[in-house]
Structures are given as structure tokens and as C-alpha cells.
Specification:
The complex is a heterodimer of chains A (244) and B (669). Helix content of chain A is 18%, strand content 34%. Chain B is an alpha/beta fold. Chain B has a 6-stranded mixed beta sheet. In chain B, strands 15-16-17-18 form a 4-stranded parallel beta sheet. Chain B is globular, with a radius of gyration of 25 Å. Classes of the chains: A alpha+beta (244), B alpha/beta (669).
């Protein structure tokens, strides 16, 4: 049986890395005494499948993890109680929101997710000035960036990957560095556009304040949904209205 | 989590977190500064309670696993009159950002400024971290020199193995604790609570330090005068009649009374020794003459096996770790170790796989037999520490293992599926000849040859460290080898092993060995050197890539002290040593006799299983070994009282293994 877990990562714990979070989950699942399936061989590892990595320091309202459970032991697990069981076993700031059984034949999270939405705080800039810069960026037809890959320079165009970009307003009062807030939807295929790359593509480049991944989206045959709907939302089977 | 309740006078109602947040986004591995570990406590700070900040003067990943710090953290938070938080040395990137933004060192638990605590207690385990201590004190906003501190500043304290000679740090430490910390932290808390209640008035610092000097195990360096005659130290004497002439270490009578840590911290990010650790005994009486830990932690105090089993079972359940280490200075010597590990392995049979490890493997087949039981999977490498290359040299250092013991251990390792063997050695030992040094290469080659019968390309890694003599060991009188001499010996080994297929040689930088040696047996005249090295940016000197010998040599030259005099000079019998006014219980004449025996190549048996030779550690404090079994463990000759010179030492390979195998069905993968 494969279950998909949706969780949040926010607050101090956002400074843990993707690898750290993987180890945190392994320990939490052992403590929960769930029948997590393991790989074969001399160093068996639990079969956990993580979605797109979240950069160290970024928060998220929608992180996902697929967990394989052994049959038939999985039948004895009360899935409805699992979020309340798991959250106390995780560090403060990682909270399980919901989970559901998924089809083993489903695409992996890394393959299935087509775009992600972000809320990005930009320090030291007024919302109006950020709006001007945003319009200028969106007016460009190409945004070429060059990066080193396996020792060779590779040039990509980021522009097609910027699906939505808008200024939400000034940063909230609790922001450590006052400024303005950007909302962005960034594609993950053919390659992921990272928030840091987006900020660097502005002219002049923007500084990065707090960053939060608000959603991950699966667009399939024109219908868009989240890998697992948040609590209180329509069930994942029903396509949900897109945020942008 | 209960809401925080801080004194309203605090300028930092919410700690420093909001100011730190933007900085953490800019530094490497920010998870080391967030706290939040399972087992972490976020105490309410009540002005009536003594607030301890427990500090480790190295990075989080090195410091977090430190069991001593974790034990005190729990005990102090259980104490009605104390709270405790933790801090570790911020890496240079965060250090620079904190200073640029005018922010101080902070606690990890509530991100509270370090200067708001009543006492900052450092764990000192390595000489090269001394400058980190100065840096952390300064970053806390506290003057580095005790003489410049005012009543509003926290007291700066230290404990740990290096405090058996704290003299190089005497200018910077308000007080020092010798020995086991479990009982004494409570007594110190009582004294500090009185100081705090009195309002920490002008001039009260001297009073509280004077009171602390009355607690057995506490040393207050500023209450002693030091007399020199030219270069020679003549005396270290108390300035007041109520200050003890000799400061005695503290020793727990029974480890079984202290089942700590009960809630071992589970870090959110990678650290060294990232596993459950259960201390199975404290102290060691093998009597290896180079080993300070084995001398200062006597006698042997075993934890009851039943308590070990409980701590392992509860620890695994609580933490979610899949590995547990049974820690001590020589775990294979624990009474009934086979039964204990058998029980632990069996108890984890039903659940997910758990690996059990013994961090210190004894050099004999018995140790390998246990390791084979424990390491169900991933038999990649095994490590042994013969320490010296010839039997003569091993008699000098009292590491009484014969070549046959090592070969049988290595043979057993290869037989049981291990492919790599790592051997630890010291070079620069007293009386060492080139023949002894080259004996290391010879042993390694013989081990490779043994492995050939079992695997196509056996690999033996030889790791060589330069020997640094330590206080309270029989070698405290020995002048250590120069950097050039150590380098020559390493080159001898390099040339000799160049064509030895399967032998890989690794070595530690002899340059760092020199500074460790200077500090290890140094005196108060090194204080200005430490301060200058720190002021010139010499922090994290224990990190290879940051160690800067010239910085140290320049500072020593500037302050007129000679590294040669401190490190390379042999001491004489009646010379006053800088730590003579401190006591680890060991009689100085016992150590001197053991030093003479060493030069005469005479070994000394383990007093756990043979009659007492009165080193002083038990008799002086009216305590005894607590050992469940009076019989030496099976297998190998190491310290078991067997006739080491006869050709028929009864070493039987995996002596009692059938019994163990019988009690642990289903162990083999």
C-alpha cells in the first residue's frame, strides 16, 4: 500500500535541509511503529519517496511524501488517526495535514508535479517599485541564464517557466526585513525554475527575504489539482480552481 | 510548549530569533543554530533560578553528541533552582554576521543572549579549541579576562578532561570543575543561587568565587599565586587559608545511580556519532601509559546490565534511532558483555533492524566475535588500536597485546566477511627507535598477507598520530618529539610502505601536535599567547584547514615563551608541574614509578582483576571498582594476567561464541 502525506514546514525548522527532513521522517516513522516497507540487500532503507526538494530556509504549506507500507500489516493501520499520531513525533513546525492511499501506478511526485506556487518576500523595496520591475520582467520574451552543468556551460530560457507573477503588496508586520511580497507560479518541466533564479533574473537582481511554497500543482489534460487537497478542500478527484 | 516567562527587565522578550532569522538565511548549515531537537528543553527563566548556559567550544556537529554536556543539561533542568540551555561555537560565517549586526552569542534553546545567563560552562575536550572558548566569551559580550569582569557578567566555567591542567586558561576561567559533574553541578547551583539572591552586588564576584572554592572539585585559578624562579615554576599556592592547597577531583561512587541522559538529544541535522549512546561503564584500569582518560577516570564503575538494557530499549523507542553504541573506554571489558549484547540483539529481533556498535574494539578475536554478532549487515571495516609496532614498544606503553592477538583478530575479521581493517598507531613514544616505527609497517603487511587467504585485495589502513604527553599520566615527564622528528618517522613509514600492496598510510599533521603539546602541559604564561592568537583570528584551530602554526609561533615569540621548553623538554622527578595543586587521586610517586617501569619495559596488570597496586584513585576517595564479574574476559592476552611471554597463551578463537550464537537465533542475515 502506498500512502501520500501532505505536510507543512514552517518556522525555525525551515532551516533544515531536504536530506535532514528525510532522516527526520525515517525516525518519526520508526517511532510510530508503522509497517514501512524497506529495500532489500545489506543496507535496507525504508521506501520513502519525496517530492521536489525544498531549498534550505524556505517554508512550505504543501510538502508531500509517499510512503510504501507492507501488506497485509498496512490493513491494521488507522489512516484517519495517522496525522494526529505523526505530528507529535515530528519537530515543531512540521505538521501532517492530511494523507490518503494512492495508486501504486500513479506517477511519482517528481514526475507528476508540473508547477509550484510561491510567496516571496523581497526586502528593501516598495510594492509600487516592485510592480514596475515585475512588469518589465514579464515584458521580456526571453530570460536567458547560463549555469555550469557537469563542467559545461548550459544556457536555458527561464521565461516560459514563469507562469504567473504578481505583487501582493507590502510585507506583513512580522517580516524580519520590510519590503514587498511577490506571488509566483513557476513551472517544473522541462526544468524547475527556482525562486532564487527568478529573483536573480530581475534587473537589478532582487534580494531574497522569506520564501514560502504555497502550492504544488499537477496539470493534466487541462485540469489542475494538488497532489493531495488540503483539509476542508474538495477531494482530490475533483479538479480545483487554480489560484492564479 | 508553555508560554515563555522571562524577567520583564529583559530587553529581549522573545529572544534574539527575529534578529537572527535573516542572518541564518545567509550562512552554511543553518540547522545547527535552530535548536528544536527531540529532547531539547525550553525553560522558563525565573529570576530566582540559576541560569546555566552549557557551551561546547566547537561546531554543533562535533559538540551536540557530547554526553557529558547532555547529562548536565538534564540534571540542571531537573533541579528546582536551576535552568540550563546549550550553545555551540558559531562557524566563522555566522560569527562575522553576528558581530556586523551587533548581536551576541545566543542559546539554541530559546535564542537568549548568552550574557543574560548566570554562568557559562564550557566542556573542554581538546587543547586546540581553547581560542574558540575566548571567542565565545567575547561574542557573549563578556570581557575575556576574569580580572575585567563585573558583577553583571556571567561566571565563566569549564569542565572536561582538559581541565586537569587548566593553567593556560587561568586568566580566562572564573572556576574549573575536576571530574564527574553529576553531583557537583547541584552544589555549585546552591552557591550561585545565594549569589543571585544577594543581587550580585559590586564586589560580590570575589565572594562567590571564594565560596565556590570551598566546594570539593572546584578550582578557582584567581585564588592562587604562582611563583617562578627564572623559567622554572616554583609553587602554586592559595592566597587565603580557606582555599584548598590541593583541589581533588569528583568521582561518582556508583554509575547505576545516574541513568542519564534519559532523553538523549536527537539532532535534526547531521552530527558525528548520530546514534543512541548508552554509557556502560566509566573509568578504565587497563593502564595504557599514554592514555589520560584511563588515568583520570579511575576506578571502573560498571552500570548494572539490567539498567543498560532498559536504557537501550527506552532510548531506541523514544528516539527512533536504528543504531545504538555501548560506550566506554573499552566496552569489550564490560562484565558479561556477550550476554548483554546477545540480550540487546534478541530484544530488537521483532522490530525494524537495529545495529549495535562498540566504538572501542579490543585487539583480539573475542572482540571480533562480538562485532560479528552485532554487525548484521554492512561488514565494511573494523578498527583496532595496537598503538605501537613492536612488543617492546607496547610494553613501554603498557598496551599488552601480542602480535598473535592482532593477527588472530585480523584473521577473524576477514573470516567473518570484513574487507577492510584499520589500525591506529602512535609515533613519537618514549624510547621509540626506528625499528619500533618500522614495526608498524611490518604489522600492517602481515595483516594484508593474512587477508589474502580470504579476499582478493585486502586493505589495511594504518593511521598514525603523533604522541602528545598528558598531565596525570606516567608520560607527563616525557619531552615529546619535535615536528621534524615526527615528520622523519612518518617519512620512514611512507618509504617503507610505498611498495606494500594493500597498506594505506594516513597520518595526522605533526604541526598541530606541537601546539597541543605546549598547551597540554603549559602554565599560566601561555594565557597572553592564547589571547593573541585569538585576537589575530586564530579560531577553529582544531580544523585542519584553519590551523595556522605561524600564528602560534609568532605569538609565543612575541610573549617570550619557548614552544621547545614546553613541549620537547623532559621533566625531572622533583620539578613542580603546573597541575601539581590539582589531583586526580593518583599518587605522584605511583606515576613516577610507572614511568620508571615503562623505561624498564615492565608491564602493569589491570587492577580490576589483580591485586591493588595503590595508584591512589580508589584509596584516596574511599571508593572501589564496581565490576559485576571478578573474572577477566575471555580471549586474547590484553591485560588478562596471562603469561604473555610463554608461547602457549590460551587464546582460543571466538572462545565462547557457540553459547552466544545459541542464544541469538536469527542473527545471521
Amino acid at each position: 500500500m502506498r500512502i501520500r502525506v501532505r505536510y507543512r514546514k514552517h518556522g525555525k525548522v525551515r532551516f533544515t535541509s531536504h536530506r535532514d527532513v528525510a532522516r527526520i521522517w525515517e525516525r518519526a516513522l520508526r517511532r510510530a511503529e508503522l509497517p514501512v516497507a524497506s529495500s532489500e540487500g545489506f543496507s535496507p532503507r525504508p521506501k520513502l519517496h519525496f517530492g521536489l526538494a525544498l531549498s534550505t530556509g524556505h517554508e512550505s504549506l504543501g510538502e508531500y511524501l509517499d510512503i510504501d507500507l507492507y501488506e497485509p500489516e498496512a490493513q491494521t493501520v488507522d489512516l484517519a488517526e495517522l496525522p494526529e499520531l505523526l505530528t507529535p513525533l515530528l519537530p515543531e513546525g512540521i505538521e501532517v495535514e492530511t494523507l490518503a492511499v494512492i495508486d501504486r501506478g500513479d506517477l511519482s511526485l517528481q514526475e507528476a508535479v508540473t508547477s509550484t506556487s510561491w510567496r516571496i518576500e523581497v526586502p528593501d523595496i516598495a510594492p509600487a517599485a516592485l510592480a514596475v520591475a515585475t512588469d518589465a520582467l514579464l515584458a521580456r520574451t526571453t530570460l536567458l541564464v547560463t549555469r555550469e552543468r557537469k563542467g559545461k556551460p548550459v544556457t536555458d530560457d527561464l521565461r516560459p517557466g514563469i507562469l504567473h507573477l504578481a505583487v501582493l503588496g507590502a510585507t506583513p508586520p512580522d517580516a524580519p526585513e520590510p519590503g514587498a511580497v511577490l506571488e509566483a507560479e513557476l513551472a517544473t518541466h522541462p526544468r524547475s525554475v527556482r525562486p532564487a533564479e527568478l529573483l536573480a533574473a530581475f534587473d537589478p537582481p532582487l534580494a531574497e527575504g522569506r520564501v514560502c511554497r504555497t502550492h504544488q500543482w499537477i496539470t493534466n489534460d487541462g485540469a489542475t489539482r494538488e497532489p493531495l487537497a488540503p483539509l476542508g478542500a474538495p477531494s482530490p478527484a475533483q479538479p480545483e480552481a487554480r489560484a492564479s | 510548549m508553555a508560554p515563555k516567562r522571562e524577567p520583564v527587565t529583559s530587553a529581549y522578550m522573545d529572544g534574539l530569533w527575529t534578529q537572527l532569522e535573516p542572518l541564518l538565511a545567509k550562512v552554511a548549515k543553518p540547522a545547527r543554530y535552530i535548536g528544536l531537537e527531540d529532547g531539547a528543553q525550553r525553560p522558563d527563566h525565573d529570576p530566582r533560578q540559576v541560569a546555566w548556559l552549557l557551551a561546547y567550544p566547537d561546531t554543533y556537529e562535533i559538540g551536540l553528541p557530547n554526553q557529558g554536556l547532555q547529562i548536565l543539561y538534564e540534571l540542571l533542568n531537573e533541579h528546582p533552582d536551576a535552568v540550563a540551555e546549550r550553545t555551540y561555537a558559531p562557524w566563522v560565517d555566522l560569527d562575522a554576521l553576528l558581530r556586523a549586526h551587533g548581536l551576541p552569542l545566543f542559546s539554541l534553546d530559546t535564542h537568549r543572549p548568552a550574557g543574560l545567563f548566570d554562568v557559562i560552562g564550557f566542556n573542554l575536550s581538546a587543547e586546540l579549541t581553547y581560542t574558540n572558548l575566548l571567542n565565545m566569551v567575547d561574542l557573549a559580550g563578556v570581557p575575556v579576562r576574569t580580572a575585567d569582569r563585573r558583577p553583571e557578567h556571567p561566571l565563566i566555567a569549564a569542565g572536561g578532561h582538559c581541565t586537569y591542567n587548566p593553567e593556560p586558561l587561568a586568566d580566562f576561567l572564573d572556576f574549573v570543575v575536576l571530574g564527574d559533574g553529576e553531583e557537583i553541578v547541584s552544589e555549585i547551583t546552591d552557591v550561585l543561587a545565594g549569589w543571585k539572591a544577594s543581587g550580585r552586588t559590586e564586589g560580590s564576584r570575589e565572594g562567590v568565587l571564594r565560596a565556590l572554592a570551598g566546594v570539593t572539585g572546584v578550582y578557582v585559578p584567581s585564588l592562587y599565586d604562582v611563583t617562578y624562579d627564572g623559567a622554572d615554576l616554583v609553587a602554586v599556592t592559595p592566597r587565603y587559608p580557606d582555599v584548598p592547597e590541593m583541589v581533588e577531583k569528583r568521582t561518582l561512587a556508583d554509575l547505576g545511580d545516574w541513568p542519564y541522559p534519559k532523553n538523549q538529544l536527537v539532532p535534526l541535522t547531521e552530527v558525528v556519532h548520530d546514534r543512541l549512546n548508552v554509557e556502560v561503564f566509566r573509568g578504565c584500569t587497563r593502564g595504557c601509559r599514554f592514555c589520560q582518560a584511563g588515568m583520570i577516570t579511575r576506578p571502573v564503575r560498571e552500570r548494572p546490565a539490567e539498567q543498560v538494557r532498559t536504557m537501550v530499549a527506552e532510548g531506541l523507542r523514544r528516539t527512533g534511532y536504528d543504531e545504538v553504541a555501548l560506550t566506554s573506554l573499552s566496552t569489550a571489558d564490560f562484565s558479561g558483555i556477550e550476554k548483554l549484547v546477545g540480550d540487546i540483539v534478541r530484544s530488537t529481533d521483532d522490530g525494524p533492524p537495529v545495529s549495535v556498535s562498540l566504538p572501542s574494539l579490543r585487539v583480539d578475536a573475542f572482540g571480533v566475535g562480538i562485532a560479528t554478532q552485532l554487525q548484521k549487515a554492512r561488514r565494511t571495516g573494523l578498527t583496532f588500536a595496537p598503538e605501537a609496532g613492536t612488543w617492546r614498544m607496547r610494553q613501554v606503553i603498557n598496551k599488552l597485546i601480542r602480535e598473535e592477538d592482532l593477527y588472530q583478530a585480523v584473521e577473524a575479521a576477514y573470516e567473518n566477511g570484513w574487507r577492510r581493517v584499520k589500525l591506529y598507531f602512535l609515533t613519537g613514544l618514549p624510547t621509540e627507535t626506528d625499528e619500533d616505527t618500522l614495526g608498524i609497517a611490518e604489522l600492517a603487511r602481515n595483516c594484508v598477507a593474512l587477508g589474502k587467504a580470504h579476499t582478493k585485495s585486502p586493505s589495511v589502513t594504518v593511521s598514525v598520530g603523533g604522541f602528545v604527553p598528558k598531565p596525570f599520566t606516567p608520560f607527563q615527564w616525557f619531552g615529546q618529539n619535535t615536528v621534524e622528528e615526527l615528520r622523519r618517522k612518518i617519512n620512514l613509514l611512507r618509504d617503507d610502505t610505498r611498495k606494500s600492496h594493500g597498506v594505506q598510510l594516513k597520518w595526522h599533521d605533526p604541526k598541530a601536535t606541537l601546539i597541543e603539546g605546549v598547551m597540554s602541559r603549559g602554565d599560566r604564561r601561555l594565557g597572553p599567547v592564547l589571547e593573541e592568537v585569538w585576537r589575530r583570528g586564530g579560531v577553529f584551530q582544531e580544523w585542519n584547514e584553519r590551523f595556522d602554526l605561524d600564528l602560534w609561533l609568532d605569538a609565543m615569540a612575541a610573549h617570550g615563551v619557548s614552544p621547545d621548553w614546553y613541549a620537547h623538554r623532559h621533566r625531572t622527578e622533583h620539578e613542580v608541574l603546573p597541575w601539581d595543586h590539582l589531583s586526580a587521586g593518583l599518587h605522584k610517586d605511583f606515576l613516577w614509578q610507572d614511568w620508571r617501569d615503562s623505561l624498564a619495559e615492565v608491564g602493569l596488570p589491570d587492577c580490576r582483576w589483580t591485586p591493588c597496586y595503590d595508584c591512589g584513585a580508589c584509596t584516596g576517595y574511599s571508593i572501589e571498582h564496581i565490576v559485576a564479574s571478578a573474572t577477566p574476559p575471555a580471549g586474547g592476552s590484553q591485560g588478562t594476567g596471562q603469561d604473555l611471554r610463554s608461547s602457549s597463551v590460551p587464546v582460543s578463537l571466538l572462545a565462547r561464541r557457540p553459547e552466544l550464537a545459541g542464544t541469538t537465533p536469527g542473527v545471521t542475515p
